[in-house]
Write a structure and sequence with these properties.
It contains four helices and no strands. The chain has 124 residues and is mainly alpha-helical.
């Protein structure tokens, strides 16, 4: 059950990223709190969200590699999609968001394993 829900989350994230990443949407309206760096922040959030189910399903190393590859693939697709343009800062933000979530999941996983086996996080 857990793996099915995680896989469903993965598919949902992929669908949302492809839909919003490739559709020729107008740029963010002026006055929005994200104003200048809005697209970059959204890339970090989107690929951070994608990294969560990817890391849970495949582990931290493969999850980070696959999520980073997805960020690169999206930028390549944006370079040929009408109304969209690729940007290296978006790629860096996507990989950074994925890296942050992967590290958090790894740390939480190690901590929870120690608790399950009767050791507190402070014990070695």
């Amino acid at each position: 059950m857990y793996r099915r829900l995680t896989f469903l989350g993965l598919i949902t994230c992929c669908g949302l990223i492809l839909t919003y990443g490739l559709a020729p949407w107008p740029s963010l309206p002026q006055g929005v709190w994200l104003q200048r760096q809005g697209d970059t922040v959204l890339h970090a959030l989107a690929f951070g969200a994608l990294a969560l189910p990817m890391t849970l399903l495949t582990g931290p190393g493969p999850g980070l590699v696959m999520t980073s590859a997805a960020a690169g693939a999206l930028e390549l697709l944006q370079s040929i999609a009408p109304g969209r343009e690729a940007d290296i800062s978006d790629l860096v933000a996507g990989v950074g968001g994925a890296l942050f979530v992967t590290i958090c999941v790894s740390l939480i996983g190690k901590s929870s394993r120690k608790w399950r086996h009767g050791k507190t996080p402070r014990e070695k």
